[in-house]
């Protein structure tokens, strides 16, 4: 998490994209993060977006803000323990097929890079359950609180 902390501190303009589906238990991780962070952080150089399951619909806002850092937050299957967080490069190998949403982040980042020069980070949380109409698991809820604390401290 220290690398993440440093990347945030160095960035001048940041876009945070919460990705997920609130109807599928732990898949709500990213959107809950975005909504909760919006309540806590007021910074004109930080744009926080609840992208739901279609981050590609927010390309205009992301590019228009002209960030030097884009942070995607999503529930990600990486064979970790439920609630475990991973920091990854959405343009790397994980960017192909980790999300249950729309287009892969790798393709999304390729499009963004054609318009702006921004670094990207993916923060993934291993879900415990993707049950429809289920509640967020205890493990993912704890990871959410931990990540919110870190962002509130750094932003």
Automatic annotation (TrEMBL):
Pfam families: HycI
Organism of derivation: Pyrococcus kukulkanii
InterPro entries in alphabetical order: Pept_A31_hyd_mat_HycI, Pept_HybD-like_dom_sf, Peptidase_A31
Domain of life: Archaea
Protein's name in the database: Hydrogenase 3 maturation endopeptidase HyCI
NCBIfam families in the cross-refs: hydrog_prot
């Amino acid at each position: 998490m220290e690398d993440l902390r440093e990347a945030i501190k160095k960035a001048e303009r940041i876009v945070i994209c919460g990705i997920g589906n609130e109807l599928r238990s732990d898949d709500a991780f990213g959107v809950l993060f975005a909504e909760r962070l919006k309540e806590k952080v007021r910074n004109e150089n930080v744009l926080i977006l609840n992208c739901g399951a279609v981050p590609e619909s927010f390309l205009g806002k992301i590019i228009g803000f002209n960030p030097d850092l884009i942070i995607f937050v999503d529930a990600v299957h990486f064979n970790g323990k439920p609630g475990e967080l991973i920091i990854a490069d959405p343009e790397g190998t994980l960017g192909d097929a980790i999300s249950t949403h729309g287009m892969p982040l790798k393709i999304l980042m390729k499009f963004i890079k054609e318009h702006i020069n921004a670094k990207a980070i993916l923060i993934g949380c291993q879900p415990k359950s993707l049950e429809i109409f289920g509640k967020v698991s205890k493990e993912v809820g704890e990871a959410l609180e931990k990540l919110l604390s870190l962002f509130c401290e750094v932003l």
